[in-house]
Amino acid sequence: MSHDLLNVYNLTVNAGNFSLKNINFSMQPGDYAIILGPTGCGKTVFLESIAGLRELKKGALYLNGKEITHLPPERRYLGFAYQDSLLYPFMSVKENILFGARARRMAGDPVILHRMEQLAEAMHISHLLDRFPRFLSGGERQRVSLARAILTRPPLLLLDEPLSALDQRTRHAMQDLLREIHAAEGLGIIHVTHDFSEALQLGRSMLILYDGQVEQAGDPLDIFYHPATEFVARFLHGENLIPGKIRGRDGKQWFKLSGSDFLLGPLPECTMESLSGSGKTSTLFIRAGSIRLSKAGEAPDDANSWTALIKNYVIDSTHVDVYCNGNGSWQASLSLAEWQELAFKRGERVRLTVSPEHFHIIPQ
Amino acid sequence: MVNSRINILQGIFLFVFILFTVFMVIMLGGLLFYVEWSDFLSVIKNPEFRFAVVFTLWTSLLATLMAAVTAVPCSFILSRYNFPGKVLIDTLMDIPIVLPPLVSGLALLILLGPILGNALVQLGLEVVFSARGVVVAQWFIATPFAIKTFKQAFDGIDPRLENVARTLGYSPAEVFLRVTMPLAKGGILSGLTMTWSRALGEFGATAMLAGITRMKTETLSVAIFLNMTIGDMQFAIATAVIMLMVALILMSVIKVFTATGVRL
């Protein structure tokens, strides 16, 4: 426990008609944790509970091994920035940034003033220090808000959807800035978002909340390819969720698609650990990017390679989503270069191939 | 067809708007037209008038200060907290607004006379039929206006601005002083102006609690009433004109505090 930056044990919080239930969470010093979930799942309540802004019904919080469960927010010394920056309109940018230092009677300290100038330079807001918030753009306001939150070097920075109110270009710039701050300051960050691509780009660990409970926690990429529940798979835009049953054959486990005799497999051993065996109704999960598309050729269908017809396709800026019919409905994904090279057409017969290590079973 | 209906509606609205504006201008203009300006200066020099102006100013300012001290905590609690009976208490605090001032004055008279009168006299704080009674009556009538406007000001503040200040190291009391009050400043100033204007013009409750005694509990409103009853119309009208001017200035100040892009 003493090696962790933050430990959350059985956190239970009531917020009106909503409640967070028995949340357990921990993060290492310098970690960048993402809290992901749909609107209303309790992400902000979770963050505010860590900051001490919510009364806990049950549970305990430890920061650097010291219990902070009953400490008021002003004695936790955590940085906090909300989605809409929330600068004080009656203060200049400089006064906003120094506001936390003023609380600790440090606003006149040369070390703090130097730190403020360094942060302003790093965040490209040096020329804005004497302006008032109403004259700043959304991105500028958010940078000031970040500078204000980290001025006094908090061990943990809590960010509540800090990028969701920004346009795409500003959001990318802010993501770069967050990465730089995280690397330069070495502080832990908990970043709440409902945008999975943002989570993948920034997070080192991830917690997915749904209806006030932890749905899954772990490495972002691992969760991306191995969602624990159908909710997580669908929330993370899981493309191929195929209902069926586990079947035993030749001493191995295979997946039989519902309504057909088509078998996929053998299933990886690790996938089967959580399942109690054959005959169980389950969902097979395959990422679109894990399905390889090629010209149909003359080869017959085998276990993990079968033919299908291209029903539709959608060209995006980086890839092409291809929708096929054959032993069920499938979605594959190709890079733009592959798509141009293969020059598929709507209605064309193609071959779909999946390597068994890309099969992931979600128990029902 | 739809456009012609809208035009008819706009025409009706414009007609009512102009009619009422003309009515207000004629009514107030009539007051100004009726005043004998030669008498106006003599009224201003009249010791009774001067007493009434000074008395009204200090009593109403003191009542406004007391109303602010009462309204800030009450309105903050009503704005920030939910508790059983909140709607009932909120309504209770509004009662002086809807109750005829005479009834409010009667209730105050019973409370501070038969019920608490003796205790207050022993403490040297006699209220009934005294200048204190004027302040208490003005305070009682004006405070609900302060509570209402202050509450609106507090309601308009995003509580997350206060949350951020807590995480930056400020205690709840410091947050209130350094964040909440500066953010509510505009609403509070307009509320204070409205409260003061209400206290300035108070008559009914003052008459019931403090009585109508010349040169003792004589506010400007009381002065108008007293001089009307003895037939000194010029004194009454001159006083009314001065109160009208004060009201116009106060209302303009309120509008400047509460609105942006005001056109005078």
Structure, explained:
Chain A is of the alpha+beta class and 364 residues long. Helix content of chain A is 26%, strand content 34%. Chain A folds into two domains: 6-230, P-loop containing nucleotide triphosphate hydrolases (Rossmann fold), CATH 3.40.50; 239-363, Beta Barrel (OB fold (Dihydrolipoamide Acetyltransferase, E2P)). Chain A is built from ten helices and 20 strands. Chain B starts with a helix and ends in a 6-residue tail after the last helix.
What topology does this entry show?
The complex is a heterodimer of chains A (364) and B (264).
Chain A (H helix, E strand, L loop, with lengths): L5 E10 L2 E10 L4 E5 L6 H9 L6 E6 L2 E2 L11 E3 L11 H11 L6 H13 L15 H13 L5 E5 L7 H18 L2 E6 L2 H7 L2 E6 L2 E6 L1 H6 L4 H6 L4 E10 L2 E6 L5 E2 L4 H4 L8 E6 L4 E5 L9 E11 L3 E7 L3 E7 H7 L6 E6 L5 E4 L1
Parallel strand pairs in A: 3-8, 3-9, 6-7, 7-8
Antiparallel strand pairs in A: 1-2, 1-4, 4-5, 9-10, 11-12, 11-14, 12-13, 14-20, 15-19, 16-17, 16-19, 17-18
Chain B lengths: L1 H33 L2 H9 L1 H34 L5 H13 L2 H15 L1 H6 L8 H25 L3 H9 L4 H29 L3 H7 L9 H10 L3 H26 L6
Helix pairs in contact in B: 1-12, 2-12, 3-7, 3-9, 4-7, 5-10, 7-9, 7-10, 8-9, 9-12, 11-12
Give the biggest sheet of chain A: 6 strands, mixed
Count of distinct strands of chain B: 0
Class from helix and strand fractions of chain B:
mainly alpha
The total count of strands of chain A amounts to 20
Second CATH tier, the architecture of the largest domain in chain A: 3-Layer(aba) Sandwich
CATH topology of the largest domain in chain A: Rossmann fold
The chain-level mean pLDDT of chain B equals: 88
The first-to-last residue Cα distance of chain A is 34 Å
Largest interface: A-B, 26 and 17 residues
Q: Any idea what the radius of gyration of chain B is?
A: 22 Å
Strand content of chain A: 25-35%
Number of helices of chain B: 12
